[in-house]
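Summary for the lay section of the report: proteins are chains of building blocks that fold into shapes. Here we show the chain for Chromo domain-like protein and then a coded description of the shape we predicted for it.
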Amino acid sequence: MPPKRKSRRPRKSQPVSPEKLRATAKSPPPLVRRKRERALKSQPASAPVGTKKPRGKRRKDGAIPQSNRFFKATRILDESETEYLIEWAEKNPKVGKTYEPSWHPKTCASRELVKEWEMDKDGKEWAAKGIVDEDKYRYKVAWENHPKTGEVFEDTWEPKAFVSKSLVQDWENSLSMRTNAFTSLVREDEASASGEDEGEEAADQGQDDDDEDADDALQHQISQEMLNTPVSTGNRDPIV
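The coded shape description reads as follows.
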């Protein structure tokens, strides 16, 4: 009887640090993105990304096990050679917040999300004023007005992979300047408070000295009056 072979378990894919991913300076026009987002919202919930897992056994109540659910995704935020960073649309029922973006094998991503991601990468560059905010995976970008129509675009959250290095450098420099300015202001306030305390101590010391001088003057006056006042010896004049 041949020996039993050990089953080979598939290796788990390791998340790739966002710092190691290449940066791109391309970002699609906001107008085009809005149309695509409206089109995605009109699609059925089964269209977005889901994790491909073998079918599990149904429970007695007929519900599908939680591990085999397909979770609705919003978009792809970044990619490595083998994985996509996926932004989820569903909320975690335990904390009431949207699930954090996570890395998953490219084979798990739906065609619709991959197609949108490829369109975003190949989209034309769009003029931006700068970065106004950020979170762990995205930058909030302020856009320039439309060059022909003058239309004003609202600020939008963009994947960090789409923002140019020059905008990121300007944003980091502005953050550094704000930090330095705040530190200087705190130091000035501390120095001002310290100076006020020293001034109050000096004023209190001067007041104490004045009080001591007044007491000394009063004691001196009393001593002089006692010296100038004749002292009775207690002897009476003889009766004539």
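Put simply, here is one thing we learned. Strands lie at 73-79, 83-88, 91-92, 97-98, 102-105, 128-134, 138-143, 156-159.
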